[in-house]
Amino acid sequence: MNLLGITVVLGLLAGVWAQINVVRPQCDSPEAEEAAQVARDYLNTQHTHGYKYALNRIEDIKIYTKPDGDMYVLEIDLLETDCHVLDPTPLANCTVRPKILTAVEGDCDVVLKRVSGALTVTAFKCKTEESTEDFCVGCYTLLPLNDTTALEFVQASLATFNNMTVNGTFTVMEVGRMSSQVVSGGPIYFAEYIVVEANCIDDACVPLNDTMAARGICTARGFSTDHTVDCKMFLTVMPVVDVNSTATLAMSPAVHAHTGSLSPMHGLRHHKLTTLYNPHLSGLLSESAESAEVVPAGPTVTDTVVTPAPAANPDPLTDTGSASDSSGSAEVPVVLVKRDVPAPAIVDTVTQKDPIAFVPVLCPGRVRFF
């Protein structure tokens, strides 16, 4: 019976400790903005295919204050830009793709830790999907990255570019996007792809696996037999992190030119963000199902850490109460003590600087694009 009493007391203390150490700032507060920018920059450095993503909205933020460093749990919405991950253009100068061109959205849950004033990402999970809200008849339709006819169009436009190039020959390094539009003369194609300088003998081309090899992005439009193509070479071969970013500068990925079908992405119509990074099996990621990814369970994480929401704290205590009821009526006074537990549930909101009346509008934050 003494052991049961100690268990109940420890459960109460753990529940109160978890509540008073959860802070929920406004989603548009400077603290939330800082964490979101660090998360966005880190996700972009981990994204080695496709395009950079811009921050669209901060959905939610929780801060767990701990002696060894505060933990930030963030939910953010991202939108694909027109800058490839190899493009050195600063993210602030990149354009978010409009819905009419089939925008690609990323929903990410990110866990960060602040140590000595610096924020670092410790875990994340992301879901990437196309926006089909404003789909219109006659608009460009995104095609799978392994669409045979569209890839033939890419090869035809690349040949046109190489015929116009005096110094050097290029091969396809990666197909970024392919789409088609139905017109009177049949489907017209639009493609974006990354090229890399290559050493070609007859029709066989081997990409130069050199950091100094020229790379660029080409955009082509039309038919295989009649099209326009425009290629822009990148000034540098390494992605450039924004000046105010805390993300670590990522090295340029090794050349992995696609041959044959040109794209290993079977059936996918866009390059997905890295879906999961959770080396320490952080249970904090499992609190949100927004990213819809399968997250490994963290059985070693206790409820005092994993369950930040105050409403969830009474549940394990209720189970303990059931055990005490089954052991005898001597623990009835303990039940009266536990009925006081829901009161600290307000602590999660009281720790905010704003009045409780404004709690419902703290999150989500503002929409930056659409």
Automatic annotation (TrEMBL):
Compartments, as annotated in UniProt: Secreted
List, alphabetically, the Pfam families matched: Cystatin (PF00031)
Where would I find the Cystatin fetuin-A-type domain in this sequence? 22-129
Q: Does the keyword Repeat apply?
A: yes
Protein species of origin = Etheostoma spectabile
List GO molecular-function terms, semicolon-separated: cysteine-type endopeptidase inhibitor activity
Q: Which residues form the signal peptide?
A: 1-18
Would you say which domain of life the source belongs to? Eukaryota
Give the span(s) annotated as Disordered.
300-329
Q: Does the keyword Transferase apply?
A: no
Q: Which GO terms describe its cellular component?
A: blood microparticle; extracellular matrix
Q: What is this protein called?
A: Cystatin fetuin-A-type domain-containing protein
InterPro entries, A to Z: Cystatin_dom, Cystatin_Fetuin_A, Cystatin_sf, Kininogen_Fetuin_HRG, Prot_inh_fetuin_CS
For this UniProt record, give its keywords in alphabetical order, as a comma-separated list.
Disulfide bond, Glycoprotein, Repeat, Secreted, Signal
